[in-house]
Design brief:
Blueprint (H helix, E strand, L loop, with lengths): L19 H7 L2 H16 L3 E5 L1 H8 L6 E6 L2 H10 L4 E5 L4 E6 L2 E7 L1 E4 L8 E4 L2 H6 L9 E3 L8 E2 L4 H7 L1 E2 L6 H4 L2 H13 L2 E2 L1 H10 L8 H13 L3 H10 L14 H13 L7 H8 L5 H10 L4 H14 L2 H4 L6 H8 L4 H10 L3 H12 L10 H6 L6 H15 L6 H13 L1
Parallel strand pairs: 2-5, 10-11
Antiparallel strand pairs: 1-2, 1-8, 3-4, 4-5, 6-7, 8-9
The structure holds cytidine-5'-triphosphate.
Length: 429
C-alpha cells in the first residue's frame, strides 16, 4: 500500500486494561473454557492467540455477541488440529487462507492466522501474507473493530487497543484507519453505515468526508459482494434505518438510482417484521418492498446487478405482477374464486408484500382472505373418484376438477356428497 494519511493515531503506550471479568460475565462458560484451553495450547506451541473484532467491541459495549473470531500469530490450522484432537470440537480448514473453524454443540469459532493485506487494485479481494497481530489489526475497517484481547494464560484478558477503538466507542464514533480505506474496499461504506445505525453512532467527520468522496468506488465492487452487504443490512434489527442513511449519503442509489429509503419503506418494513415467522423470514418481504416502486425493467436491472438467486428474483418479479392485479383485487364484488385465480400462482412473500404496500382496503381484505382461507381450499373428490363415477379419462377430468375447486372456493358446495351431486349433474348433460 502507498503511504497514506492516518486518521486513527496508533498508540505508542496504550494503558493496560483487562477484560477477563467481562468475558467471564458476558460470554457462555463453554466459550470461555474454549478460549482458556486454546490460549494454553497456543502458549505450548510458542504462539500468541487473540480474540479480535466485533466480539471485543460488543464485550465493551455490553452487547451479546457469541461469534468468536480468534487470530493466532503462527498457524491457525495447527492450533485447530490440536483443539480437535482433544475433542474440543469438529474442525474444518481452509489451507489456502490458513483459517479453520471449530464447531461443537451450538457453538462455532473461527480461527485465522494473523495476516497483512494489500490490494492490487480498488475493489479487488486482497492479497494476504502471514504477519503479526499489529499488522492484522491495521488492515481492518474501523477503529471500533480493531481491538483484540490476548488469550495466552500469562496475558489472558489483556486488551490491545492500538487505534483508540475504546475512546471511539465512548465517543460513539465510526472512524476509518487511513484515508484509502474506502478506496481499498468500498464494501466498508455499507459496513460503516450499518454500524452507525445499529449502534446509534456517528461517522467521524473526516471519515464521513472520505465516505462521501469515495461512494463512486462502490462501482468497483462485484454485484455478489454488494448483494452480501445488502443481506447483512436485512439482518439488522431495523434495516430501514440503514437504508434511510444510505439514501441520504447517496449510497443506496448506487444499487439503483430509483431506490428510496424513505418513511414509506420504514413503515412497510416494520409491518413486514410483524408478518415474518421462522418459516417466512423477513428477507423476502424486504427485497420485494425495496424494489416495489421500480418498473419491470428497473427490477430486472437490479436482479441481474445483484445476481439475485432464482427464488429471490421470483419474489421481486411476482411482486411486480401482483401489483398489476391490485386494481382487479380492489373490486368489492370480486368472487372468492376470482381472488384465488388472481393470486394463487405467486410466492407468499410477494403476496404479503403487496398486502403491506396496497392502499386499497378492499384489495387488502381480499388478499387476507386468500392467505387465511382460499389457499387451503381443496375439493374432496380426486381424479380417481371421478373415473369411478364414470367420467371419461382425458382433459375432461382436469376441467371437472377445476370446476369443483371453483365451486368449493365460492362455497357453492361444502361436502363430498354435494360434490358428487354436482359431478353427476354435469356428466348427465
Ligand atoms: N473486516 C474489515 N473489513 C471488511 C470486513 C471485515 O476490516 N470489509 C474486519 C473487521 O475488523 C471485523 C472483522 O473483519 O470486525 C470481522 O468481520 P465481520 O464478521 O463482518 O464483522 P464483525 O465485526 O464480527 O461484526 P458484526 O458481525 O457484528 O457486524
Amino acid at each position: 500500500m502507498t503511504s497514506v494519511t492516518t486518521y486513527a493515531i496508533m498508540r505508542e503506550m496504550p494503558e493496560v486494561t483487562n477484560l477477563a471479568d467481562k468475558m467471564e460475565n458476558q460470554l457462555p462458560a463453554e466459550l470461555v473454557n474454549f478460549m482458556r484451553v486454546a490460549g494454553g495450547i497456543a502458549t505450548k506451541q510458542g504462539q500468541s492467540l487473540y480474540l479480535v473484532g466485533g466480539v471485543v467491541r460488543d464485550l465493551l459495549l455490553g452487547k451479546a455477541n457469541f461469534d468468536l473470531d480468534l487470530v493466532i500469530e503462527g498457524n491457525a490450522i495447527e492450533l485447530a488440529q490440536q483443539l480437535a484432537e482433544i475433542k474440543l470440537g469438529k474442525m474444518t480448514t481452509h489451507p489456502q487462507f490458513n483459517t479453520a473453524k471449530i464447531k461443537w454443540s451450538k457453538w462455532s469459532v473461527d480461527l485465522a492466522t494473523a495476516r497483512a493485506e494489500s490490494y492490487a487494485k480498488p475493489g479487488a479481494l486482497p492479497t494476504v501474507k502471514p504477519s503479526s497481530i499489529e499488522s492484522d489489526l491495521s488492515r481492518r475497517d474501523f477503529t471500533i473493530n480493531t481491538m483484540a484481547v490476548c488469550l495466552n494464560p500469562n496475558r489472558y484478558g489483556e486488551l490491545i487497543d492500538l487505534y483508540g477503538g475504546r475512546d471511539d466507542l465512548e465517543r460513539r464514533l465510526i472512524r476509518i484507519l487511513h484515508e484509502r480505506s474506502f478506496i481499498d474496499d468500498a464494501t466498508r461504506i455499507w459496513r460503516g453505515v450499518r454500524y452507525e445505525q445499529r449502534l446509534d453512532f456517528q461517522m467521524e467527520r473526516n471519515s464521513l468526508e472520505l465516505l462521501r468522496r469515495d461512494t463512486p468506488m462502490l462501482g468497483t465492487i462485484s454485484g455478489d459482494r454488494i448483494r452480501y452487504e445488502l443481506e447483512c443490512v436485512f439482518q439488522e434489527q431495523e434495516p430501514e434505518k440503514v437504508l434511510r442513511r444510505a439514501e441520504e449519503l447517496n449510497v443506496l442509489q448506487r444499487l439503483h438510482p430509483w431506490l428510496r429509503g424513505n418513511g414509506w419503506l420504514a413503515d412497510k418494513f416494520k409491518a413486514a417484521r410483524k408478518r415474518a415467522s421462522p418459516g417466512l423470514p423477513p428477507f423476502g418481504f424486504y427485497i420485494a418492498l425495496l424494489a416495489y416502486h421500480l418498473s419491470n425493467e428497473q427490477s430486472e436491472h437490479l436482479i441481474s446487478y445483484l445476481r439475485l438467486s432464482k427464488a429471490v428474483a421470483q419474489i421481486v418479479r411476482d411482486t411486480a405482477y401482483i401489483k398489476t392485479k391490485l386494481k382487479a383485487l380492489a373490486d368489492p364484488e370480486l368472487s372468492r374464486s376470482s381472488i384465488y385465480r388472481l393470486l394463487h400462482s405467486y410466492s407468499q412473500p410477494a403476496i404479503i408484500a403487496n398486502l403491506l404496500a396496497s392502499e386499497s382496503p378492499v384489495a387488502c381484505q381480499h388478499i387476507e382472505i386468500f392467505l387465511s382461507e382460499l389457499r387451503y381450499v381443496k375439493s374432496a373428490l380426486n381424479g380417481n373418484d371421478l373415473i369411478k363415477m364414470g367420467v371419461p379419462t382425458g382433459p375432461y377430468i382436469k376441467e371437472i376438477l377445476q370446476r369443483l375447486h371453483q365451486a368449493r372456493l365460492d362455497r357453492k358446495v361444502t361436502s363430498k356428497q354435494g360434490e358428487e351431486e354436482l359431478v353427476k349433474g354435469w356428466i348427465a348433460i
